[in-house]
Amino acid sequence: MSDPPQEEDFSILSIADRLAHKNWKARVSAYESLIKTFQTTASETDPAFKPYLNNSDTLKKIVTDANAVAQEKGVECVVNLVKFAGENAAKTREVVVPALVEKCLGSTRAGTKNQAIELVLQYVEAENGGTGVVGDILPGLAAKQPKTVAGCTTALKEIIRQFGVSATAPAPVLKALPKIFAHTDKAVRAEGTQLTYSLYQYLGPGIESWLADLKPVQVKELKEAFEAMEKDGKGKGTLKPVRMTKAAAREAELNEANGGGEEAESPPEEEVPPDPRMFAEPVDVVAKLPSNFQASLGSSKWKDRKEASELGDVAKSLAACIHKDANINCVMAASNCMEALAKGMMAPFGRFREAVVAPMLERLKERKANVTDAIGAALDAVFATTTLPDILPDILPSLGSKNPQVKEGTLKFLGRCLATSTTPVPPPQVKPVSESLASLLEDSFEGARNEAAACLGTLMKMVGERPLNAIMDGLADVRKVKVKEAYEKATVKCKAGGAPKPAPPPPVKEPPKKKGTAVKKSEPSEEASSPAEDKPAKKPPARLMAKKAPNGTSSAAGDTASSPAAAPSAKKPLPAAAVAKPAKGAAAPGPGALDSFKFKHTPEDADLLAAEAIPENFTVGLSDANWKTRLATLEEMTGWVDGAAEDLDSEVVVRFLAKKGWGEKNFQAR
């Protein structure tokens, strides 16, 4: 009996020969050798990757191997290539992923299908996002074979589930849901349901607007499932990313190296987007407007104007229609259009604020509630695209309108803005707003008086009572009671808006001005002990004397006599703080005493210390031409100073701010 023939030893052949061999076992041998080679490479730039990264067609041939066993091993080989070559392998995605869609994701071999999904996920890591990968998978949803469609749906689900909606924009996937749920194959629809569940766990109820094209029974089943998920604690925000892209992994390693190891051990928790509309793809609505749009708005037939408004996208034209159109149906249609436009564009619509708010407020003179409600809803949508400090200049002029309905409607809108704003009223704007509201408390129209009291109470809840004390003191008692009642009932989203702003000054007052401070604190004692040296200290009272001069000489003389006594009494607390340094107050300071002030650092040393202690982004931000950027930088720096105050040299910080911001011309940033 003869021995069985020995299997051919393919290891003696080169990898290139084995890859091109007709025998599938030779190709498997090549794939196994490459897997070991890739796993033992020294870095992502190892020369072993180069022949394959520069030849995507070879990789395509590997993952589409005609033999099922060899194909599974071939896909595993490419998985290891992408895994260990990292971002360098991203350029092969556009050739390999379509091949996976066509030949692997619908494979009947579980191993091949799982390896193909893993390869898809590896490409998401390498490309630092899933946009390209998703774009290559979506055409597979139109495949003739249901198993291919189901495999593509599973791959999409895994991308969303493992990376979240930050690494992969969900809009293209959401748009594909109707096609998946309309498929005749049960397995495809089942995978689509699981994909929808994953999306819901990230996006929450916002996903429901994307399900409008599904069958009613499907929508009902999904909503019931969503409710059950919420009850079971598996609803919105419960699903977190379990994998990171290469860039995110590098950032996590950097955080760990800088001492943030505990936070970097697991992928960072992803914040759930506040509004799913941010994932919607931009649409050029202007291109869809009819050619006779402007002509229709100016038509003498109100039905033509109404039809144009329903299709409108031009904010100024809509505002003009709201402001001037004689037919209330057109006004309501234009208002609904304005609301939808603002909600659709979100923040970018804010640049049209100045052109649309004033005309809309003026039209609040209408007495019919359905008209004013439509305009009010549009105004609220516009406010959602901007901030309270930005929109206040557009609101305040309408508070002085001669029409009582306009005043009342404007006050109602202002009240809603104050209650819902997440940005407080800046201190410079508190006075003009409060003065306007205080004057309206005495308005002859009761509706305006009531709304003004409500607004002033809400403003007080936001900024606190202290900034409004001067205004409140001048009000009649009955008005004070109404404002206080409104204050008690008011709810706001940002309290004490004026409090955080003054927080930065304490570090500014702390620089070690040892000599200057001692000299300044010695003034009261010198004024009390040496009348001959009182002259420099009499300058502030002298200004008061100048104001009182018209009343008569005796009055001025009386002020002159009383001022030396008044000045020391006003400064008595200061010598108590300077008791520890009495020796330095021996000489009375002259008018230019502060000129002798000395820093402990030279200008050059102060600049060097500032460069080391203060993050570079603050320097860049304070030098930006946009005042909003400078203001945001100052607010960020305030928080940084609060957290690092103990380790900072106050002189360095003050001199840095003096160099960057003392010449600030914008009142908010200043």
UniProtKB/TrEMBL annotation:
Region (Disordered): 255-274, 495-595
Keywords associated with the record: Cytoplasm, Cytoskeleton
Localisation per UniProt entry: Cytoplasm, Cytoskeleton
GO molecular function: microtubule plus end polymerase; microtubule plus-end binding
Pfam families for the chain: XMAP215_CLASP_TOG
Entry GO CC: cytoplasmic microtubule; mitotic spindle microtubule; mitotic spindle pole body; static microtubule bundle
Biased composition (Acidic residues): 262-273
Gene Ontology terms describing biological process: attachment of mitotic spindle microtubules to kinetochore; establishment or maintenance of microtubule cytoskeleton polarity; meiotic centromere clustering; microtubule polymerization; mitotic spindle elongation
Primary localization class, coarse: cytoplasm
InterPro entries, per the entry: ARM-like, ARM-type_fold, TOG, XMAP215, XMAP215_CLASP_TOG
Name of the protein this chain belongs to: TOG domain-containing protein
